[in-house]
Each structure stands twice: as structure tokens, then as C-alpha cells.
Give the backbone structure.
Amino acid sequence: MTTGRRRTVHSDRNRTSSETNERSDEPTRRRLLAIAGATGLGAFAGCSTSVGTGSKSTLRIGTLRPPVTLDPISARALGSEQAIERVFDGLYAYGEGTDVVPKLAAGEPTFEDGERTFVVELDDDARFQNDRPVTAGDVVYSFTAPLEEDAPTAWRVNPFDSVEAVGERTVRFTLAAPFPGLDHALTHSIVPRDVREDDRAAFATEPVGSGPFEVASFSEETKVELRRWSDYWGNPKPAIEALTMAYVEFPMTQLTSLRTDRNDAIEPVSPLTVDHVSEVGNASVRRRRGYTSLYFGFNLNQGPTTDRRIRDAIGYCIDLDEAVADFVEPMGRRQYGPLPPQVARAWNMPVDEWAALAPPKDIDRARRLFDEVGKATGQIRVLTSMDPKHKEFGEALAGGLRDAGRGALVVSKPESVFLEKSVTGSERDYSVFVGEIAGTPDPDSHLYPTFHENMAGVTNGTFYRADAVMERLAAARTTRDREKRRKRYETAITRLLEDRVCLPICSFENSFAVAEDVRNFRVHPIARENPRVAAGEDVVTVGS
């Protein structure tokens, strides 16, 4: 155990009032109310619980985000991560905001040798759900397995040069270089090595974690049922006995499930239904600005979009200001770079300059560019998930392409298939895809996994390889000087936009519609931290 100096692991204690904004919507009466009332029980094909049969100590959430896996090492989608965060603990956990506090760790890390090497002691009480203590070996495994398996979470742990057990409950981390995103990396979930290595496939559906909930049942892309772990070693302990997150395909079905008490909460709240939540479900909307955004990503590996003129032409085929107003507002807003507006503002990025790089809708100009390239370049395939927002943006783009005389096909796939196909780089799978980034206040979380060549084919489906951009993205994540780091990100993002690697679309808030008998429910700005059922002084209860 070192006696080196300690460093506080708080990354953002100075939250703005807008980041903690949380409000209920005023009741209105519109046509949608009548539609919701007429929808009836026949709309519930996607729901698996029965009306009125749920225990009042069960929180049932209807989500548009399907869970794909419960393995923290291989998870990539929000629907999976939201369930995983309830089952697994990390060394550190997010507090009320984006500050980080000890969880499995006994305290703050002890730094030695500058800030490249530090030691973390584990809490003596930390245990897995099979009653085995969490050991340093489990921590080492959890931070090295993503790299060995080339997993989607590898970008979070690859700044570590080594992770070693120096005792049964003591871990030493050594960084290859300074890493400003360290606090966020240390929230990485810790898994039991022996259980996962015994059968990785089984672990993805019936994992053993150290968090407050155990897995009762899991159906890929359908539902996860969690039950409270009665012997949870940590605090606070959940008040609810069970948590169910069930995939619902359509926003109207979501809304009706809240109205008929089939679900206690729904998320995210669709712009189509937000004005009607309080009327239909006697509920309120809880919302908070987050760090999640959408973008069109181009396939620069194969097919027509390897030609810059085609990417420019595609950009002229859609009015994204109008599309965001139609499909997202008021639950989100337009953004002009790959960073959500609050991140761009916090880092003093030139958003107005980036907005000037956004192509206006100009069908004639698109048609001329397509004609210039010629028709031999093939059909434009637009790949989306089944998420309604993603599909709407895909269809809007395809409509503009057809107006410009270009063949276009929107291919919408279930989440697991979309995650696989959107990073193949094959023109048979996509020319353009609708991507989603769920990051943190640190720009690295939005840029490195999405655009760096080291993550191509894993979390990066663009296959862009400009050396100047790759070098800046890599250098920025090891630069402690904030202004130098900001400039590297600014230069890299400007080049990404100028080279038309992507078309930024919008950011959107983290939002839930919650029934009135669900109490102490608060929304966290980090999307995967939701739903928060026990954190700090907020312990969610259901019923009177």
C-alpha cells in the first residue's frame, strides 16, 4: 500500500442550473388523446406483463431501447447498458451529476510516480451475488478482457499501460500517458473472472454481478426482469423488490401502457406523446439534458460514399433543421458537430463555424453532383435500427435522395443486427447509417469510439483514416492542458465536417414519463445511469 498523495476523483461538481433542469409538462388536449384512448389493449403485442398483476413494489418500465446483452465487456447499446448498471458495480460510480464517488473502491485512489500510477483498495465488504468477494484479480480481468477480446468497451480501458493485482484486494494501475478521462474510465463495471470465463455465452444472459439487482430473466431484444439482491453489500439499498424493463416498439404503445397501468414509467418520451402524458397516464415527464446525440455516418470503406461528391450530394438531400424540428423537438435540439451542445459550449467550441459547414437542402445541386459522378455508383442504402426516430431520419433522407433522382433504400434492422452490420464497412450493408452516441461531458467519449481508426469495425462504422485527425484524437485524450486539448478537438472536428465523414443531426434529453405513485424518481444526465432506483438520498418507491 503506497503512502503517495491522494487526488479527488470529482470531474464536474459545478453543474449549471440547466443541467439539473427537471420539469413536468402542463396538461393539453389534442387529437392524440383521442387516438390514445382508442388504441385500447390491442396495441400491447410488445408488452409482456398483464394489466393490474404487477406487485406495487415492482417498477415496470416500457422502453424504446431493447436490451441485447447483459455482459458489460461486450455491451454497446444503451438498452443493455441501462440494465447492466443495475446488476454490476464499478470501482467508482456517478453521483447526482457527473461527479464520481467510490463504490467497490474503499476510497479515492492513491497516486504515486506523478499521476501515471495509482493504487485502488477494494472495499472489504464488496461481494458478488454468488457470495464470493470481489478481488483484485477480478478488477484486472475486467480492465484487460475488453482489449484481449477487441470488445466495444476497449476504448474505455486502452489508455492503461498495465493493471496488476498487488494483493488480494489491492490493484495498481499504470497509465501509458496522462489521461484526463480517467474518472469516467474507473466507472467501468467489474465482473467475476471465473464465472464469465466458465461460459461467456451464459454470462451474457445470466450474469453474476456485485450490484443491487440480480437477473431474474432475460429475453434478448425483448425484456429483462431484475429482482432485488437481498444481501447487497452496498448502500443505498433499493426499496423496490423488482425492476422490469420491457421493449416497446412504438411511442403510442408506450403511452397507452402508461395509461392502463401496464407500465409505471416509459422512456425515452417521444416528441409525439410528450404533451399528452399527464392527460393519458396521470403522470408527469421528468427530463434532463444529457450527452446523447444522433448523426448520419458515411461508409468510407466501400461503395458510392467513398466518393466525396456523393457524400456532398447526400448532404444536400435533407433539411436537417426542419427534420429535427419535426421529429425531435421539444425533446432535443439540432447540433452541428459531433459534440452535444452543452459539451461544445463547455469547451468553447466554434459551433457557429461548424453550423456554416452544414449543407443546406438543395436538390438541384445534389442532382448535378449525382449526374457528374454517374449512375454506375449504385444505390444508396440507408441503415437504421428499429428506433422510430432513427427510421424517421432514414426515411427523410431517402425521400430527398429520390427527389434528386437517386435510388435509395432504407433498411431498418433489430438492434443486435444493426449493431453488427453498422460497423462492417461493407457496401452491401450500408452507404449511410443513423448512429447514436451516448457519452459523458468528456469529448473523448463522443469522438474516439465513433471516429478513431483503432475502433473501426467495432464501434466506428465510418472507416475514416486521415492521419492528421487520428493523431489529434489520440493526442487529445492524453493532453492535460485543457486549452491545448480543446484546440486538438476543434481541429479534428472541423476536418471531420469538412471531409463530410458525418452529418450531425441532434442531441436529445434523457426523459421518462412516470406515474404519480412512483416517488423519488430523478433522471441522471449520463444515459446509462438511468433508471436510478437507489442513489444518494433518492430511493425510488412505487405505490402509496
